[in-house]
Design brief:
By secondary structure, the chain is α+β, with helices and mostly antiparallel strands. The protein contains 10 helices and 8 strands.
């Protein structure tokens, strides 16, 4: 039997904000019924102030899942979207007075649902839609695992399972979890050494530009096109990448966030972490 704090039990027995908001501006769904935990978060946004007016949830899961979802909605109402996105799964757990380590995946699920809902509102792909699926049993991607390891400073595969459920099913993905853990901790894969891994070969200027073009053409532009937008690579000068937003993106009030939250993030993850993206103005 898990030991829950009084606050966890309060949010479990008297959950706040259950249901669906009156006007769904953003929606995030994470987990699945087959995995034992599922969460749907809907948000209503004051579009002039960029503030979350209301948030409600529907969840299937244990006491920790219900309490984490209830706490999340209380924490984000009245906050700007950027303030809400700054919340971590640890913030949710702390709000509840702590969660058993074996139940920390419930707080992670809440954070991911929020990110998915905001991404949905902004017309961007969610984090959970990126990366290769590592754990087939629970549908956990490499990017989700890496983010949780970094954010929570995890050091063992057991902790990864506690925070994401990855590796808690058939166990076949555990070697991949170990490899991800080694990579994030800057260790050489498989040898248990604390010696930093060798840096990746430096790209030539031409190969760098070609890679930037490929990422924009195959990953960024298609996502923007789904909502009537587009993007064009204008120039590359060292670490500075100049782009022009087209279509609906060119006049969208959230264009700066599109550049910061999606375009810059993708290029830094797939090309170079030092990249700075600038928009060309007419």
């Amino acid at each position: 039997m898990w030991e829950y704090t009084d606050r966890v039990m309060d949010h479990f027995e008297n959950p706040r904000n259950v249901g669906v908001v009156a006007r769904i501006d953003g929606e995030g769904q994470v987990g699945s019924l087959s995995c034992g935990d599922a969460l749907r978060l809907t948000i209503q946004v004051d579009k002039e102030k960029d503030v979350i007016e209301d948030a409600k949830f529907q969840t299937f899961g244990c006491a920790s899942a219900i309490a984490s979802s209830s706490a999340l909605t209380e924490m984000i109402k009245g906050k700007s979207l950027d303030q809400a996105l700054s919340l971590t799964n640890q913030d949710i757990a702390d709000f509840l007075g702590g969660l058993p380590r074996e139940k920390m995946h419930c707080s992670v699920m809440g954070q991911e649902a929020l990110e998915a809902a905001v991404a949905n509102y902004r017309g961007l792909p969610s984090r959970s839609a990126r990366g290769d699926v590592v754990c087939q049993c629970f549908g956990v991607t490499s990017e989700e695992i890496e983010r949780v390891v970094r954010t929570n400073r995890l050091t063992t595969v057991e902790e990864i399972t506690q925070y994401t459920k990855a590796g808690g099913g058939c166990g076949k993905c555990q070697p991949q979890l170990e490899a991800i853990l080694d990579r994030v901790l800057h260790k050489k894969p498989g040898n248990g050494s604390d010696e930093p891994a060798k840096a990746a070969p430096r790209l030539t200027a031409l190969k760098r530009i070609k890679l930037i073009e490929e990422v924009i053409g195959t990953q960024i532009a298609p996502a923007l096109m789904r909502d009537g937008g587009d993007i064009e690579l204008v120039d590359v000068d060292g670490n500075e990448v100049v782009v022009a937003l087209k279509g609906s993106c060119s006049s969208c009030p959230a264009s700066k966030r599109t550049l910061a939250d999606f375009v810059t993030e993708r290029l830094r993850a797939l090309v170079d972490p030092q990249i700075v993206v600038r928009e060309q103005r007419p």
